[in-house]
Amino acid sequence: MSLIDKVSYKRSKAIIAYLNRDAVKAYSLLDEASRTCRQGSSQYGYFHAELKLTEIIRNRMDSQNAQDCKAI
């Protein structure tokens, strides 16, 4: 699995964990994804885009409205 695939996978798992009310695991997975993006950002430009997307998701999880999210 490539590094970019790992970032997408961890971010997706974080969203699922958050929807299942496991915020600690969700934020931990987002931290891992962000770390991977920062390490790869000097090599490839798409890591910068992946980092921005991860930050958008983190900001959404931090927002007031996110508390209303429910697992499917």
Report the count of strand segments.
0
Helix percent band: over 70%
Distance between the termini: 28 Å
In DSSP terms, counting alpha (H) and pi (I) runs of 4 or more, how many helices?
Answer: 3
Mean pLDDT: 84
Question: Can you offer a commentary on this structure?
Answer:
This protein has helices at 3-19, 23-40, 46-62. With 72 residues, it is mainly alpha-helical. Helix 1 runs antiparallel to helix 2. The model has no long low-confidence stretch (mean pLDDT 84).
What's the topology here?
Elements: H1 3-19, H2 23-40, H3 46-62
Helix pairs in contact: 1-2, 1-3, 2-3
Which terms would index this structure?
72% helix, 72 residues, globular, mainly alpha, single chain
Question: Concise description?
Answer:
The chain is an all-alpha fold. It has helices spanning about 5-20, 25-40, 45-60.
